[in-house]
Specification:
CATH architecture: Alpha-Beta Complex
Number of strands: 13
Number of helices: 9
Largest sheet: 9 strands, mixed
CATH superfamily: Spore Coat Polysaccharide Biosynthesis Protein SpsA, Chain A
Order of helices and strands: EEEHEHHHEHEEHEEEEHHEEH
CATH topology: Spore Coat Polysaccharide Biosynthesis Protein SpsA, Chain A
CATH class: Alpha Beta
Number of domains: 1
Bound molecules: 1-O-phosphono-alpha-D-glucopyranose
Structural class: alpha/beta
């Protein structure tokens, strides 16, 4: 059973400056709610009971946001007819109960962030959600948990990207199983157009095996001097650990760049949520 999820949140968010000079990017509102709440709700609806947030000292605002229940309580005492405020209070309290915090104070990459959760993961597999990637109109995490049970494999979300864009993503080498699923033969972090084995990209939803912590302890830094989760996955695939890809049909929204963020707000407000 997959009941725990980790969310790396220590990134600096430089692609969203100047907004991120004072607000953590994951708290930026998308149609009136912090982007991070959409990610949490996806996890909760997929059966997740505990989230581990990897933050940094610079991003304590995230902890403050979810630990502000007393502040609401005080205001509600004065304005006890405010229904919306009460709902927000209950929502924050619910989230707070489910979240633990660990710290990654140096931006050493996603692999390094994952390793910080080593002592918290109790089961053989866990979910990781990257908050820059929103997937709407399908609960991708839930679909991936189903695929994990069906194939008894680790699972990574995927979508096809244009050839000219491959160097923005992790890219799979694969063997197709059916329209929605494939076996992962290899995965390369941000390859050049010439070196890309396919156009099938990694999107930020992963069901990873606990074994990955052992690999990460020895994983050398890769591109840009960072420890990439992609490289640790690659090591496991080479050791014949079963990884499958899941091609989701939900709508993908990239919230990590200014253009993507603006578009996400427009798109989400047009969906009937
Ligand atoms: C990360 C991963 C990359 C993946 C992407 C999905 O990259 O390293 O493999 O394709 O997330 O959003 P980043 O967005 O941190 O550059």
């Amino acid at each position: 059973m997959i009941k725990q999820a980790i969310i790396p949140l220590a990134g600096l968010g430089t692609r969203l400056l100047p907004l991120t000079s004072v607000i953590p990017k994951e708290l930026l509102p998308i149609n009136g709610r912090p982007g991070l709440e959409y990610i949490l709700d996806e996890g909760i609806k997929a059966g997740i009971k505990e989230f581990i947030f990897i933050i940094s000292n610079k991003k304590k605002g995230i902890k403050n946001y979810f630990y502000n229940d007393l502040f609401y309580k005080k205001i509600i005492k004065k304005k006890n007819k405010d229904k919306r405020l009460k709902q927000e209070y209950l929502k924050i309290k619910k989230y707070k109960k489910m979240i633990k915090f660990v710290y990654q104070n140096k931006p050493n990459g996603t692999g390094d962030a994952v390793l910080k959760c080593k002592n918290y993961i109790k089961t053989k597999f866990f979910l990781m959600l990257l908050p820059d990637d929103l997937i709407m109109q399908e609960n991708c995490s839930l679909s991936m948990i189903r695929q994990h049970k069906k194939f008894r494999s680790s699972v990574i979300a995927s979508r096809k990207v244009k050839k000219k864009d491959v160097s923005r993503w992790g890219i799979f080498k694969l063997k197709k199983i059916n329209k929605k699923s494939f076996l992962i033969d290899d995965v390369i972090e941000k390859p050049s157009v010439l070196n890309a084995p396919s156009q099938q990209s990694v999107i930020g939803r992963y069901i990873l095996p606990k074994k990955i912590f052992k690999v990460l302890e020895h994983q050398k830094a890769g591109q840009n001097g960072e420890v990439h989760i992609t490289d640790a996955i690659r090591t496991l695939v080479k050791k014949n650990e079963k990884f499958t890809g899941y091609i989701f049909s939900g709508k993908y929204l990239d919230c990590g760049t200014m253009k993507g963020y603006i578009n996400s707000s427009k798109k989400i407000s047009s969906y009937n949520l």
